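Ticket 4471: requesting a sanity check on a complex prediction with D-xylitol-5-phosphate. Repro inputs:
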Amino acid sequence: PIKGNNMPSDLKIAPSILSADFSRLGAEVEAVDNAGCDYIHIDVMDGHFVPNLTFGPPVIQCIRPCTKKIFDVHLMIDPAQPHLQSYADAGADIITVHVEADAHLDRSLQMIREMGKKAGVSLNPSTPETAIENVIDKVDLILVMSVNPGFGGQTFIDSQLRKVEQLRRMIDSTGRDIILEIDGGLNPETAPKAIAAGVSAIVAGSAVFKGGGSAYADNIRSLRPNLKV
Ligand code: DX5
Ligand code: ZN
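Returned structure tokens:
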């Protein structure tokens, strides 16, 4: 059974380009767009907040003309606040910052909204859902990490499902349409559990980009709930 107000048909699939072929990044973005994704999930890592280092605003700006889909930019950088405007200018539609990387989260969320972008907040697996209680009125998206951020291809941490259920209740009690997204280790086995717990958006890197371009459409479909259930 699907809990909360998210109907299966509203489920958003957000391929993480961390698992794309970086030597052909523009073509990879076009391929997942054509394969029926909803968002493009863009993992920005700084080698400090997380052990890995990826890319920043110039690369995002380069791929912006490749698709009209929503750019869901996940900032795993500390500090994030001095860089928010650069990501907005590069073409982000949603900018998500981590609770753990921001002593002034309330201000960052307000800044993102003042830039005309959707404001997201992300929680590491060890961070309780209560960490966002006091800012929930200023968020458009909540991103639950179901792996420790830094790398693609890790194993889904089951304890995060309980956090998703709690956040679904918190969101429903606001009466606002906040996107509840989950990221890390999502595949055709784990996605249904996350959907049942109440997510409305699923990030997937390795599960979407495996098998090359001709497999992307099937890979994306395999993450959507079976409507007959
Ligand atoms: C992890 C990133 C994820 C990652 C997901 O730090 O935030 O978006 O790319 O990759 P998979 O789906 O392979 O776990
Ligand atoms: Zn991510």
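Notes from triage: The first strand starts at residue 12 and ends at 15. Leaving this open until the requester confirms.
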